[in-house]
Every structure is written in structure tokens, then in C-alpha cells.
Amino acid sequence: MSRLRVLVVDDSAFMRYTISHHLSGQPDMEVVGLAGNGLEAIEQIEALRPDVVTLDVEMPKLDGLRALRQIMEKNPLPVVMMSSLTKEGAAATVEALTSGAVDFVAKPTQTISVHQVLDELTEKVRQAARAKVRSGSLFGAVKRRRPRAEGGVPERIVLIGSSTGGPGALREVITRLPGELQAGVLVVQHMPPNFTRSLAERLDQLSSLPVREAERGDRVASGQVLVAPGGLHMTLNRSAEVLLNEGPPVNGVRPAVDVTLLSAVAAFGERVLGVILTGMGHDGRDAARALKGAGGRLIAQDEATSTVYGMPRSVVEAGLADRVLPVDEIADAICDMLGDPVGKPQLTRLAQ
Crossing angle for the helix pair 257-268 and 285-293, nearest 10 degrees? Predict the structure, then answer.
């Protein structure tokens, strides 16, 4: 079996050596090149044609985000970002993930050892090599007038769950929803703290709907999107109040789609529309059974447009999906299944 060809890009000589030494020691990998900045990375990708690139966010001459844009335009291939856990690092990483990067790994800190980082990076490089990568030429909705969120309990709830590849898929779905959407939207994306806030802020910049990270005591309202905070489970009661807790991980993650969707079904029954997007594992499948049993409906992203066809596959193979669709058709399907009369939002190419 041929080994995965990896290009390591980092402005730190120590990190380049450490990452390359560790990955080269894996029986299924070989490091074919090293680069200290984005310009060198672009040149080496052209010359070496690696299978996967590990890409530092903060670099001189050409940073990781701008390098990623060029990679996705010219030679789309799986990219795993290396990021600091600072607010700025989280924001840049989320922008990278919504622009085509497959996943990210946090750099070592006082609480995250080099060994932990290397082990996580090794597994994510393997996962990235199996991922489907789409061109970086993404589209989003033109900002439209945002109506004031309606008071009271919303008639319908849309719950979107995603994991690996999710930020890009969420960008495709959320930015295509109209500002007049007659439903409250909850998003559960597998991400650590800080990154979910940056994700909400990024989606808010691009969307007609207001998007923000959920806080304790929030109430779901029609025409707004709440994102589950990293590190916390999010549940919903019959008054549409958001509750957050630090319960044990479910399916190995917190927040978990199953936790939020089960609570939404218990509170709103058939008034819930579930959407399962790209991601590893089967988070959301168990709650989808409860959703279907209560008379609710569910949309799953198709295999062709999923970065990782794990979570969607689990609900499709269990016979729980009412529709299986490409990611760019899901927003229209949400409106259709809600009985929303609002037409498609106008689309335009986003500035690179």
C-alpha cells in the first residue's frame, strides 16, 4: 500500500522538525517536503503534489489563510490547519474551515502537550486523506434586511448537526437561508470553546439571518440562529429556552447533536426539522429515530458533497432521512419542508 505523502508548512523550524519527524515515523506516511511560509508551500505543492498539507495559520510573507485560498483555487487538496487557541487564531482558523480546510489541530500550550498535538495531527492527517475536497470557489447570500426576531415560542425548530467539514457546509446552508425564515435555527458543530464563537461570528458576517453563540437563558426565536458553545451540551425546553450543561460527552463529543435533538423532540415533537451534515461517526442517529417516531422530518447531506460521509451515512442507512441532498440544495429544502413561501435568496460570489 502506498504511503500518504505529506507537506508540512510552519514558520517555526522546531515545529517543522517535530511534525515531520513524527509523521515520517508512521508506517503509512512520508513527509515529502517542508515549507516555512505560504509562498514556499504554493511552490512545493505544484512541484511535489502531496496528498495532504499541514498548514500553519500565522506565517510571514504569505499567511496560512491566504495560502489556503490559493491552494483551493489552483490545486484543491486536503489541508489540516495548525492554529493557536487565541481569539485571533480561532477566528482565522474558522475562516480557513469555511474556505475549504478539512480540519484543524491546536498548537501546544501549557495544558496541551506536544505529544497530544502530534497524536491528534497524525489521526487527522489520515482522516483528511480520505476526505472529499471541493473547490474554494464558495458562494453565499447577499445580506438582506434582517427582521426583528419574533417574540414567543417559535412554531418550528430547525436543528442542524455537523462535525468534520461542517463549517464549510454550514456556510453553504446558513448563507442561503432567507432572513424571513419562519423558524428558529439551532446549530451543533463539534468544536472546542472559542472556535464556536468565532464560527457564529463568521456566519453572522455572511448571512441574512443573525447568528450568534448561544448563552444560558437565551430563547429560540424565528429568524435567528443559535450555535451551541464548544465544551457544553445544549438543550431546549418547552418554552424554547436554551439550557447549557457540562454533562459527560455523548458519542465522544460535547456538544453532541443527539443531546440537543432529543431535547428538541421532547419539547416540540413533529415541529422539529433535523438536518445532518458532513462529519465522522454517528452523532445524531439515535435522536433521529426519536424525531421520526414523533412525526418530525430529517434532511441528510449526500455523499458526493460531504467532506466525511459518516454522520449523514448513519441516518441514511438507518432509513431515517426524508431527503438526501447536495449541500447547496439543503437550504431550499429546509424552506420547502417548513412550508416557507419565501423565495430563494439572491446569490453572489464572495470576495476572496
Answer: 10
Burial, 349: exposed, middle or buried (Cβ in 10 Å; 0-12, 13-18, 19+)?
exposed
List where CATH 3.40.50.180 sits in the chain: 144-349
The distance from CA 318 to its chain's CA centroid, rounded to whole angstroms, is 23
- Dist CA 330 CA 302 (whole Å): 10
Asked if residues 6 and 31 have their Cβ atoms less than 8 Å apart, the reply is yes
CA 276 to each of CA 32, 148, 184: distance values in angstroms, whole numbers, following the listed order: 36, 28, 16
* β 184-189/297-301 pair status: unpaired
Would you mind telling me the total number of residues written for the chain in this entry?
Answer: 352
Those residues whose C-beta lies under 8 Å from the C-beta of residue 17, and which sit 6 or more positions away, are none
Instruction: Return the active site residues.
Output: 163, 190, 283
CATH class of residue range 4-130: alpha beta
pTM, 2 dp: 0.89
Residue 350: the pLDDT is: 34
- C-alpha 342/C-alpha 92 separation (Å) is 33
Pairing status of strand 347-349 against strand 139-141:
antiparallel
- Average pLDDT of span 91-100: 93
- Burial class, 25, CB count within 10 angstroms (exposed 0-12 / middle 13-18 / buried 19+): exposed
Dist. CA 27–CA 197, nearest whole Å: 38
Of the pLDDT bands very low, low, confident and very high (cuts 50, 70, 90), residue 135 is low
- Fold designation for 144-349: Rossmann fold (3.40.50)
DSSP string, 313-347: HHHHHTT--SEEE-GGGHHHHHHHHHT----PPPE
pLDDT confidence of residue 151: 55
**Which residues make up the CATH 3.40.50.2300 domain(s) of the chain?**
4-130
Considering the chain, what percentage of its residues have pLDDT values greater than 70? 91
